[in-house]
Write a structure and sequence with these properties.
This protein is an alpha+beta fold. 40% of the residues lie in helices and 25% in strands. It is built from 14 helices and 18 strands. The strands form four sheets. Strands 1, 2, 3, 4, 5 and 6 form a six-stranded antiparallel β-sheet that branches. The chain has a five-stranded antiparallel β-sheet with strand order 8-7-11-10-9, sandwiched between helices. β1 and β2 form a beta hairpin. α10 (319-343) runs antiparallel to α11 (352-367), α11 runs parallel beside α12 (386-408) and α12 (386-408) runs antiparallel to α13 (451-463). 33% of the residues are buried. It holds the Pfam family HisKA_2. One of its GO terms (molecular function) is protein histidine kinase activity.
């Protein structure tokens, strides 16, 4: 299904909510196409007196009569008089003759959608009549339901703005089960799938002739857990959704009140067994909780390791040994910080800006507590995968430490950290990270890399699949630039 909205945007006569009402119609009219066993097309007038197709829906309960997409095209000449009559009369118009083509016989109806006394668009229903068999009770009931909804459209009563538009998985459809009730909530008809859904809940008797509210109430074992919307849904009084659970079975219900000019004369209730969907969702929630707990325990274990290293460093007599253990503690603490952040979220992505803001300042202070070093951060890292965040945090930690210890070298100065995301030549996303200082600059002769820089180079090349480059900073000091691809494919290639 597609929608062609430019003509609506250009229509100056629409009042508040008119365009949104038509969008709500297109978002929910698959229901009518399935009930009517018909293709639906939405037509809107254009200045030259013709109509343009805004949207098209095909039924899932029957085969389509239109195999090609015609959204955005002008109306056929033979169909326009019928649409003109419906636009003017504001009542449902039926073609007086069956439309015969080389392949099918088709019955066409034109339904004006009227709001606040003004016709906003016309829906045409195209039903294949080539099948000559006698329609079943299910088909006759479905078609009557479709007619009632379309007639409500001519009165501006459907679609209803109170209808939930949430995208929760498991929303019931016509084929999942349909129940039609009268104004008192008595079941007039229940489709086979609807009956089966309630049988899985434990209702073994016939639904027809009984109040759906009483049936549902009798099935509920724990009344304390009942959704407050349930009574209004099972009586068909409000166009809402709810969910009931009994005997390990979850049933999603959606009510659609049926109204005319005077009163509510009935309701449709769509039902769907969503037990498997909810079971899978619970598994995902359980897995998320397990993953968070694992990150939390890893963080605790790493903090224990850092504490043991600290205790060991106090017993060291060698200053070089103490310094080595201090560097090890800092690296362990950086990894622990990433796991702490992951233990607090529901996804495996990390808001890296929140993490690095703390780590950046802390790394500069720990590297040389006696120096007066200021830090400045520019740009945004954004959301990064967890397997990306840990090595990048370690790299930045080592580079900031190196800038303070060797670049500034017991002098006052500033360390800058900047990040920028952009698209590369092949539309891949690239993250550029720069760590700079205004210190002594690069040494005149290359010297052997220490452990910290070896860690940085290894992590950038193997874990981040990126490149790293040292250069002189304009204005004095050193600048380290790292580039890495954020797309999984580019990282794995």
């Amino acid at each position: 299904m597609a929608i062609f909205t430019d003509p609506i945007k250009d229509h100056a006569d629409f009042g508040p909510g008119d365009a949104e009402w038509l969008h709500l119609l297109v978002g929910d009219w698959q229901l009518v196409a399935d009930l009517a066993f018909s293709d639906l097309a939405l037509w809107f007038p254009v200045p030259d007196g013709s109509y343009v197709a805004l949207a098209h829906a095909r039924p899932s309960t029957s085969h389509t009569v239109f195999h090609s997409d015609f959204v955005g095209e002008r109306i056929r000449a033979d169909l326009q008089p019928l649409v003109d009559r419906a636009w003017t009369s504001q009542v449902i118009e039926r073609s007086p003759e069956t439309n015969w083509t080389a392949e099918t016989a088709m019955r066409v109806e034109a339904i004006p959608f009227v709001r606040n006394g003004r016709t906003l668009a016309v829906v045409t229903s195209h039903m294949d009549l080539s099948s000559s068999r006698m329609p079943s009770r299910l088909e006759l009931t479905y078609r009557q339901c479709a007619y009632d909804l379309l007639r409500m459209g001519t009165l501006g009563l459907w679609p209803d703005f109170a209808t939930p538009t949430g995208s929760r998985r498991g929303a019931p459809r016509v084929g999942d089960g349909l129940i039609r009730m009268d104004a008192d909530g008595i079941v007039q008809y229940a489709s086979p799938n609807g009956v089966s859904a309630f049988r899985r809940l434990g209702e073994m008797e016939s639904l027809e002739g009984r109040a759906l509210a009483e049936i549902t109430t009798a099935l509920l074992k724990d009344r304390r857990m009942v959704d407050e919307t349930l009574p209004l849904v099972v009586t068909g009084r409000m166009p809402w959704r709810t969910e009931i659970e009994s005997r390990g079975v979850s049933l999603s219900l959606r009510a659609i009140p049926l109204r005319d000019e005077k009163e509510r004369f009935g309701a449709l209730v769509l039902c769907r067994d969503v037990s498997e969907l909810r079971r899978r969702e619970m598994e995902l929630v359980s897995k998320d909780a397990t993953i968070r707990e694992i990150h939390h325990r890893v963080k605790n274990n790493l903090q224990t390791v850092a504490a043991l290293l600290r205790m060991q460093s106090r017993r060291m007599e060698s200053e070089e040994g103490k310094q080595g253990l201090a560097q090890a503690m800092r690296r362990v603490a950086t990894i622990a910080l990433v796991h702490e952040t992951l233990s607090q979220g529901l996804t495996q992505n990390v808001n890296f800006d929140e993490l690095i803001d703390r780590q950046f300042r802390l790394a500069a202070e720990v590297a040389s507590p006696t120096q007066e070093v200021s830090t400045e951060k520019e740009g945004s890292f954004g959301e990064l995968p967890s397997d990306f965040a840990t090595p990048l945090a370690l790299v930045i930690n080592e580079l900031v430490t190196n800038a303070v210890e060797h670049g500034l070298s017991d002098r006052k100065g500033t360390v800058w950290l900047s990040a920028a995301r952009q698209r590369g030549a092949y539309a891949e996303e690239i993250l550029t990270v720069t760590v700079a200082d205004d210190g002594a600059g690069l040494p005149p002769e290359p010297r052997r890399e220490g452990l910290g820089l070896q860690i940085v180079r290894t992590l950038v090349q193997s874990e981040l699949d990126g490149t790293i480059e040292w250069s002189a900073r304009p204005g004095g000091g050193t600048e380290v630039r790292i580039e890495m691809g954020l797309d999984n494919e580019s990282r794995r290639s």
